[in-house]
Amino acid sequence: MEKSEIRRKIKALRSMLLETEKLSAAEEVFAHLENTPAFMMAEHILMYHSLPDELSTHRFLSKWGNRKHFYLPRVNGVNLEILPYDETRLELGAFHIEEPTGDNTVNPEDIELIVVPAVAYDKKGNRLGRGKGFYDRLLSATRATKVGVGYEFQILDEIPVEPHDVKMDIVISQNGCIIIR
Fold first, then answer.
1. Contact 149, 125 (CB under 8 A)
2. Is 62 helix (H, G, I), strand (E, B) or coil?
3. Which of helix, strand or coil describes residue 91?
4. Rounded Cα distance, 61 and 150, in Å
5. Has residue 71 got a pLDDT over 80?
6. What's the whole-number mean pLDDT along residues 123-135?
7. Does an H or E element contain 109, and which?
8. pLDDT in tens, 74-106
9. If DSSP codes are grouped into helix, strand and coil, which group holds residue 139?
């Protein structure tokens, strides 16, 4: 299946989810994440601030915000910067995503775990994003554990990959974790 076809198919499936299904899936996925050694040991975690069509991170950020150091990405040109998460210091940024404000950027090497959104993943840890390459550029610059999260229907047997694509170490859906490496 071509990337564009996968993106269309997943978009259609996500649009059919009820709000209760979205909340339930997020609870299950992030419960699985909480039980991974990678999450338990990490203190500095890069999350994403979810869009309405993505697996919601809002409750998870609130739940763990006082116990872990969370960071969010901010678009800067063709790259992502990393800044500390503070729910009182977010503003609508590129692509209508809430992003952190300020100048206190963090080196990607200081991050221990990155929770990565995607359109789809495969069982080998490959990730299909929205097509701009922001996360691939960031992920290639860090040794952090990379965790892909999504709905079960976002995990396919195989997706097309390109040389610059960065694999996930773990992929998590409602059905559990796939440990890649």
1. no
2. helix
3. strand
4. 16
5. yes
6. 89
7. none
8. 999 888 999 999 989 999 987 788 999 999 999
9. helix
Q: In this structure, are residues 111 and 139 in contact, taking their beta carbons and an 8 Å threshold?
A: no
In angstroms, the CA 138 to CA 31 distance is 26
Please list, in sequence order, all residues whose beta carbon lies within 8 angstroms of the beta carbon of residue 174, skipping any fewer than 6 positions away. Answer: 24, 25, 28, 29, 151, 152
Contact 72, 83 (CB under 8 A): yes
Q: How confident is the model at residue 158 (pLDDT cuts 50, 70, 90)?
A: very high
CA 40 vs. chain centroid, Å, equals 17
pLDDT of amino acid 142: 92
Beta carbons of 81 and 74 less than 8 angstroms apart: yes
Residue 73 CA to residue 1 CA, distance in Å, equals 30
Query: In residues, how long is the chain?
Result: 181
Residue 5 amino acid letter: E
pLDDT on residue 94: 75
3-7, long-range: CB < 8 A, 24+ apart: 3/128, 3/131, 3/159, 3/160, 6/119, 6/120, 6/128, 6/156, 6/159, 7/119, 7/120, 7/128, 7/130, 7/131
Cβ partners under 8 Å of residue 136, min gap 6? 129, 164, 165, 166
Contact 135, 116 (CB under 8 A): yes
Mean pLDDT (the chain, rounded): 94
